[in-house]
C-alpha cells in the first residue's frame, strides 16, 4: 500500500504527463480520438521517414490544439541554414518547445551531436521557450557512460528540461536522478516511462528499425526488451511506486512524466486515467 506521501507523488507525476508518439500514418487520429486538446504530445524523429514526417505531424497536431514537442534529431539536420528554416516553420505553427537528441542516424551534415545544434540554436536566436535534452539512466548502447554524463553537463546551459530515456528498473532510475543532482545539474527532469504496452504490439513496433529513438533502443538492448515483453515483467505503476520516495524529493526537481506510448495512445491514456481515478474516489 502506498503511503499518502508516495500516493501524492505518483498522482502528481501522472497528472503532469506528456505522450511520445512515432510519426506513422495512423497516429494522428489515435491522438485526436483519445487525448483531449491541450495535452502535450512529442513526435519522434525517424531516420527511415525523414524529419519531414516529424514536422508535418507536428503542424497537424498543433492545428488540432495540442501542445506539440517535435524531436529535432541533430544528425538528421544538414546545418544552420536548414535549422533556421525548421525554426521559422515551427514558430509559424506556434511550437514553443523542442526536444534535441543526437539521433542514431549517421550525420547528414555538420551536426555530430546535440550540443552542436544547441549552440547553433542560440546563435540564430532560438524562438523556443523550452528546450529538452536526453538523459541516460541505462547505459547507451553505443556511447560510454562517462561521455553521456559529460555531454549532459555540457548541454545544461542550453536546456530547460532533461528527459530520461527508457529504464525499467526503479533503482537504476533513482540512482541516476541522484547522481545528476550530485553533479550540480539542477535542470528539471521529466522521467521517461514506458506505458502499459501490449507485448505483441511492442514486438511489432520494436522490429521496425529506424522508426524512432525509443524502438531503436529496444532493438539494441535485447535484455531490456525481454524484461518489458515478459508476462508480469514490467508494471509502470509498480516502477513509480518504488521510485516515488526519491522522485518526490523536492531537491530532485522531477516535474513530470514522458510516456513512451509506442503509438498505443488509447491504452496509455486509459491506464493513466485509471490510476488517477484511484485517488479521486
TrEMBL record:
Which cofactors does the annotated protein need, by name?
Answer: FAD
> In which domain of life is the source organism classified?
Bacteria
Output the Gene3D superfamilies linked to this UniProt entry. Answer: 3.20.20.220
For this entry, list what GO says about its biological process.
methionine biosynthetic process; tetrahydrofolate interconversion
Keywords attached to this Swiss-Prot or TrEMBL record, sorted alphabetically, are: FAD, Flavoprotein, Oxidoreductase
Which residue windows are coiled coil? none
Per its UniProt record, what InterPro entries does this chain match? FAD-linked_oxidoreductase-like (IPR029041), Mehydrof_redctse-like (IPR003171)
TM annotation in the entry: none
**What is one term from the GO cellular component aspect held by the record?**
cytosol
Signal peptide positions (record): none
The protein's GO terms of the molecular function aspect are: FAD binding; methylenetetrahydrofolate reductase (NADH) activity
Catalyzed chemical reaction(s):
(6S)-5-methyl-5,6,7,8-tetrahydrofolate + NAD(+) = (6R)-5,10-methylene-5,6,7,8-tetrahydrofolate + NADH + H(+)
Give the pathway listed in the UniProt entry for this protein.
Answer: One-carbon metabolism; tetrahydrofolate interconversion
Record family assignment: Belongs to the methylenetetrahydrofolate reductase family.
Specify the protein name: Methylenetetrahydrofolate reductase
Query: What species was this sequence derived from?
Result: Nocardioides antri
